Amino acid sequence: MEVFAEYLAQIDNPQHRERMEEVLAWVAGKFTDLKPKVAWNQPMFTDHDTFIIGFSVSKHHLAVAPEIAGINRFSDEIVQAGYDHTKQLLRIRWESPVDFSLLEKMIEFNMLDKADCSTFWRK
Asked: Where is the YdhG-like domain (predicted)?
């Protein structure tokens, strides 16, 4: 989690910072083989140098970016969880609970789907 310390310190709202820290710590603890890093000013996790999932802070929500394939694969479950999404990310409003089981499915999907991927992003 040290890799995220500077990023987390820049989050002004204490509740937002705590939520982001909770999510990042959960991912790091659950998926110990993933590499945490900050790139494009957002915390993310990679596997064999390919992007798996990223996070960012907005005024009204925590954004989760599993790439388009992850959004497409889990679109129905994202809506069922009470979140909205775009082509690239889902939004977890600050007052909403985090559906960690959904995050787990998205991360596992990306790890499996990108197991043979040799680029950072999907082509």
From this structure: 16-111
More confident residue, 122 or 91: 91
Q: Give 2-113's CATH code, choosing from 3.40.605.10, 3.90.1150.200, 3.30.750.24, 3.30.70.270.
A: 3.90.1150.200
Q: CB of 47 within 8 A of CB of 33?
A: yes
Contact 23, 57 (CB under 8 A): no
pLDDT tens profile 79-91: 999 999 999 999 9
CA 110 to chain centre: 11
- At residue 1, the pLDDT reads 77
